[in-house]
Amino acid sequence: MHLETAPFTSALPASMFFRTGSVQADSRYPQHRHAWGEFVYAFSGVIEVKVADHHYLAPPQYGIWLPPDVEHMGLNRYEVVHCSLYMAAEHCGALPKNPCALTVSPLVRSLLEHLRQQPGTLPRSDAQERLLQVLADQLALAPCAGSYLPSSDDPLLGAVLRALEAQPGDNRTLPEIAHAAHTTERTLLRRFQRELGMSFVEWRQRLRVVKAMPLLDAGQTVETVALDLGYASASAFISMFRRLMGVTPDEFRKGAVETRGVVRTG
Fold first, then answer.
1. Phi/psi of residue 254, nearest 5 degrees
2. What are 218-227's contacts with CB under 8 Å, separation 24+?
C-alpha cells in the first residue's frame, strides 16, 4: 500500500483553492483532519473516503463532501484522476453539515473540467475567483446522495454485503441469499431499506458498476466484464450501466482514457 501525503496541513494557500492530480492504485491518505471543507471528485476511477465506520464511494456522477474538522482517510484501490476544492470554514455554511456524496450536475462537471486545465498558481484573477465562487454555490445546491454504495455495521446485513462484494457476479435471488444467511427475505428487505435507503436490486447494480469501472479502465472487453459480473449478455450489462451512469461502458472507458491523458500531459 502506497502512502500519500495530504497537500496542506496547517493552512490553505487561499480561502478557496482548487487542486488536481492523479493517484496510483493501492494507495491511501492516512487518517487526518483539517479546519477547512473539501469537495473531492474523480474524473476517472472511484474515490473512496472512510469517515469513522462509514465508507463513501463516488464514481464520476458524484463527488464527496467533507465538512471542516471531520477526521477521514482516503482510499484508492485503483488508479484515480481526481481534484479537490478546498474551502475555508467561512465558505462552508451553505453546504451539508455531515459528509456525503453530492450529485454532480453537468454544470459542475463543466466547471471542474475547465478549472483543471487552468494553472493552479496564485494570485488568481478576479474572473478565476468568481468561477470558484460559482462552483461553491452550485455545490451548495447539489442533491446529497448519502453514500453511492453504502455499507452497514449491522451483523446480518454487513455479512451479506461483504459476501456480495467478494462475488459481484453472484446471481442468487434475495430469497436464496436470505436462506443462506439463515434469515427471511422480509427481514433482509427491511434492513436494506432501513440501513442503506435502497433496495437489494439497486445496491447490487451499484456494486457491479463500481466493480466494472476498473476492469473497463484496464482494457477488458465489455463482454468479459459483463460475464464476470453475472450478466448473461453484454447488452443487458450495457443497458444497466447506461441507466446508472448515463453513458455506455465504451463511452465511459473512452472518457477515462482521455481524462488520464489530459492530467498527465498538462
1. -60, -45
2. 222/249, 222/250, 225/249, 227/169
Q: Which residue has the cell 442533491?
A: 143
Distances in Å between the Cα of 163 and the Cα atoms of 56, 57, 101, 226, 240 are 19, 18, 24, 19, 22
- Full-model pTM: 0.74
Cα(100)–Cα(64) distance, integer angstroms: 6
What is the secondary structure of 162-216 as a DSSP string? Answer: HHHHH-TT----HHHHHHHTTS-HHHHHHHIIIIISS-HHHHHHHHHHHHHHHHH
Mean pLDDT, the chain, whole residue set: 88
Judged against a pLDDT cut of 70, whether residue 204 lies above it is answered with yes
Place of cell 469517515: 51
Cis peptide before 175 (omega within 30 of 0): no
Query: Would you say how long the chain is, in residues?
Result: 266
Q: How far is CA 106 from CA 70, 109, 197, 257, in A?
A: 28, 5, 25, 20
Determine phi and psi for 144, rounding to 5 degrees: -85, 125
Burial zone of 125 (CB within 10 Å; 0-12 exposed, 13-18 middle, 19+ buried): exposed
Element (H, E) at 256: helix 249-265
- Helix or strand or coil: residue 43? strand
CB 217 within 8 A of CB 250: no
pLDDT digits (tens, 9 = 90+) for 133-192: 999 999 999 998 877 888 888 999 999 999 999 999 999 999 999 999 999 999 999 999
Amino acid identity, position 60: P
